[in-house]
Amino acid sequence: MGLTTGKDRRARPGARLPWALALAVGAACAVLGIVLTVRPFLSLGVLVVLLAVGLVAHGIAELLRRDAPWLRVVLALGWIAAGVLVLAVPGLTIGGLVLVVGIALVLSGAIGAVRALRSPDGDRWTALALAAASVLLGIVALAWPDVTVFVVAAVLGVRLVLLGGSLVIDAIRRARAGASTVEADGAGAPPRARARRRAGAVLALVGTAALLLVSVQLSGVPRPDAFYDAPSAVPAEPGQLLRSEPFQRAVPEGATAWRMLYTTTAADGSPAVASGLVVVPGAGDDHPVVAWAHGTTGYATGCAPSLLEEPFVAGAMPDLGATLAAGWAVVATDYAGLGTAGSQPYLIGEGEGRSVLDAIRAAQQLEAGLGTDTVLWGHSQGGHAALWAGGLAAGYAPELSIVGVAAMAPATDLPALLDGITGSPVGAVFGAFALAAYVEAYPEVASGDYVRPGARIMVESMQQRCLTDPSTLVSLATSIVSDGRVWSQRPGDGELGERAAENVPTLPIGAPLLLAQGGADSLITAQAQDGYVAARCAEGQAIDYRTYPGLDHMGVVTGESPLLPELRAWTADRFAGAPAADGCSS
Fold first, then answer.
1. Phi-psi category of 239—alpha, beta or left, where left has phi over 0 and alpha has psi -120 to 50?
2. pLDDT (tens digit, 0 to 9) for every residue of the chain, 586 residues total?
3. Whole-model pTM?
4. Angle at 82 between CA 76 and CA 83, to 5 degrees
5. In sequence order, which residues have a C-beta less than 8 Å from that of residue 208 and are 6 or more positions away?
6. How far apart (Å, rounded) are the C-alpha atoms in residues 578 and 402?
């Protein structure tokens, strides 16, 4: 291996630096790169600072490479400006950082491609592969802003380690040789070095292309079609059927189903439009009705169960087939704002409860053979909705015959629930939904009062995904790796906590009430549910309270849960007019 001069000397980073300075710069880059590579999931504030410093270091390294002066200088100054901008404007935080880095990666790749095509020597195809990888990574960054900060941290970390290692090795060689020259890079580099560089470029391109392909596969929140658009003239009276059409997706064999659009009343009392499904057994008439209030499917408009591949599985409907086999019809609201325009009343009692009751009213206008007696079922968010619907029914929809209410793992003590999610990274996803709904419904609730600046883009991205979408894996991953550092104050405190307390379901329910709770539920805990039940019993509400040790939030309504046959038996008793047990008295 010989020493080089002239143009070849300018190709290696550090060739114009004294060896001692190159050694210091290289060591600093390597250490910073190792931290970013090994610990990309540091607290978001620290990560932003490290990334900004890394961008500046990357730009300085580019300035030291002088093989294409004006292109290299433009690229280097761009990286430095990006780092300085992030450091100088704290308000940018994650959102600004991702935007800056995404654009910088695309521009860097474009400039690299131009430089490779104009270069008369060197390994042109290797340079083009690296340029293409940079462009693709920039596209992924802009498409997935909440996860990109972690990916960029790891990628930039590896790049800094390699750059720093190169500077350190060159400095040590020069110090030992007592010379200021180094081996050439590019066409004059040893064959092994060129082969390694070519292999690294191919791996970078393949890996980034795979990441882009995965991101495309993860995308896909359903979009409502024209059926969900409100007609030009909407009746002011709630519970009016606006339109309906046959529905077949995931409907059990022998059953008949429709999707419907109907009027309802929003939480603030204004007119609203909601959608839902009606499913009836294939034979007979005067079918008793189970009004199903689904569990959380997401906050975005496209997360309506009637839009999803498995409408009833998505909302945790307990055994639709057995329900229909019992001869009961199912009326399932999407809630206002899911499928239809407007905001979803997520954990906002009056909006949810009215959506449930008005779905029953609208379904009875179909020629579907529905009877009048109705039992309300709901799980999780839907349990909250069912409790509110049961409490509102006498005053809001007195013509309905509500003969029972079954709430499974219902969201009841909302301030405690919101506080509990701060200790669970996964809980941040549900907290994001609740925050979005309360910000829309209550002007005094501000997102900035509860979400750390560095986590805002993560929370906003969570609010745009459905739980059934593969992209939710990204929400869960970013929530977990951020170590739960999402909230600037406890969501159960302040204005959000006060409004949440107002939405605890405390209205008296005249119909028999069954409340089921899993003992191993970590989202809605048995302890919190016990407290709610005790308080309601003290107020005179009769409750058949059943607990299931070892079952978690979803386990209580799925699989071999003993609740499922008990729920059907309890519901059959309500339709038969049998007396109901009162667990409060015992």
1. left
2. 333 444 444 444 444 557 777 777 778 777 877 776 665 545 555 666 777 777 787 777 666 554 545 666 777 787 788 778 777 765 555 566 667 777 777 877 787 777 777 765 556 777 777 777 777 777 776 766 655 556 666 666 666 676 677 777 777 877 777 644 444 444 444 565 556 556 655 665 666 666 555 555 555 567 899 999 999 888 989 999 999 999 999 999 999 999 999 999 998 999 999 999 999 998 778 999 999 999 999 999 999 999 998 999 988 999 899 999 999 999 999 999 999 999 999 999 999 999 999 999 999 999 889 999 999 999 999 999 999 999 999 999 999 999 999 999 999 999 999 988 877 667 788 899 999 999 999 999 999 899 877 677 778 888 888 888 776 677 776 676 665 567 888 888 899 999 999 999 999 999 999 999 999 998 899 999 999 999 999 999 999 999 999 999 999 999 999 999 999 999 999 999 999 988 887 6
3. 0.75
4. 95
5. 132, 133, 136, 137, 140
6. 14
DSSP 290: E
- Residue 576: Cβ within 10 Å count: 10
Cα–Cα dist 499/501, whole Å: 5
Which segments of 411-545 does DSSP mark as H helices, in order?
Answer: 414-420, 427-441, 456-463, 472-481, 494-502, 526-538
Residue 168 buriedness (CB in 10 A; 0-12 / 13-18 / 19+): buried
- Residue reference for tokens 């993560």: 458
DSSP reduced 3-state for 103: helix
Q: What whole-number distance in Å separates Cα of residue 481 and Cα of residue 479?
A: 6
Closest by CA position to 387, among listed 403, 406, 402, 414: 406
CB contact at 8 A, 290 and 375: yes
Torsion of CA 48, 53, 58, 59, to 10 degrees: 110
Nearest to 549 by CA among 526, 572, 581: 526
Asked if residues 496 and 534 have their Cβ atoms less than 8 Å apart, the reply is: no
Q: How far apart are CA 444 and CA 578, in angstroms?
A: 47
User: Pairing relation of β-strands 401-408 and 256-265?
Assistant: unpaired
Euclidean distance between CA atoms 480 and 130, whole angstroms: 31
Q: Give the number of other Cβ atoms within 10 Å of residue 28's Cβ.
A: 16
List beta partners, residue 246.
258
Q: What are phi and psi of 517, to 5 degrees?
A: -145, 135
469-475 long-range contacts, CB within 8 A, separation 24+ = 469/218, 469/220, 469/221, 469/298, 470/217, 470/218, 470/220, 471/218, 471/219, 471/220, 471/221, 472/429, 473/218, 474/144, 474/146, 474/147, 474/218, 475/146, 475/429
d(CA 377, CA 508): 17
Short-list 312, 319, 245, 256, CA closest to 285:
256
Report helix, strand and coil shares of the chain as percent, to nearest 5: 55, 10, 35
The secondary element (H helix, E strand) that includes residue 292 is: strand 287-293
* Neighbour tally for 365: CB within 10 Å: 14
Q: What's the rounded Cα separation, in Å, for the pair 294 and 359?
A: 13
Q: List the end-to-end C-alpha distance of the chain, in Å, as a whole number.
A: 90
